[in-house]
Design goal:
The protein has 148 residues and is an all-alpha fold. It has one domain. Helix content is 78%, strand content 0%. It is built from 6 helices and no strands. 20% of the residues are buried.
Length: 148
């Protein structure tokens, strides 16, 4: 299978957006307090865990996962655009956002929901985590569609 070329600068920017959104999403500005509480932990316990963890490696790993997500989405989006209509050269942000939503709906949401069900995690915890994936995918899709 041949994949059409992608804009790797757009992939990098989409990955940075996903990474920054994650930092914001799980910060006190947005959902940190609720997210920590839903795990039956305290902020002090989370800080202690972070202090004993290799944070540079964790952040680097989080960025690599964002990069993989953006890279795969870019290739799928380019391939689908070329298959649906090879003459399509300009996609808009709406196309990309819908693509990101469909990726979330088809891959991230159902697999993470099934995992949450069997792990016994609260559904609100799944909702916070899954909504982060939804927003990430929609933003990445919009960036990748516009900047091809």
């Amino acid at each position: 299978m041949h994949f059409p070329p992608v804009n790797y600068l757009a992939v990098l920017v989409a990955a940075i957006v996903i990474f920054i959104l994650g930092g914001l999403w799980y910060s006190p500005v947005l959902f940190m307090k609720k997210w920590v509480a839903l795990q039956d932990r305290t902020e002090e316990q989370m800080r202690a865990q972070a202090a004993s963890a290799n944070m540079p490696l964790m952040y680097a790993s989080a960025f690599v996962t964002a990069l993989i997500t953006a890279w795969v989405m870019a290739h799928l989006l380019a391939y689908m655009a070329s298959v649906v209509d090879p003459s399509v050269t300009n996609l808009n942000a709406g196309h990309g956002a819908i693509f990101g939503f469909v990726c979330w709906l088809g891959f991230a949401a159902p697999t993470s929901y099934a995992t949450a069900l069997f792990s016994g995690k609260p559904k609100q915890l799944w909702l916070i985590d899954s909504a982060y994936n939804l927003v990430s995918f929609v933003l990445a899709g919009a960036i990748l569609a516009v900047w091809r």
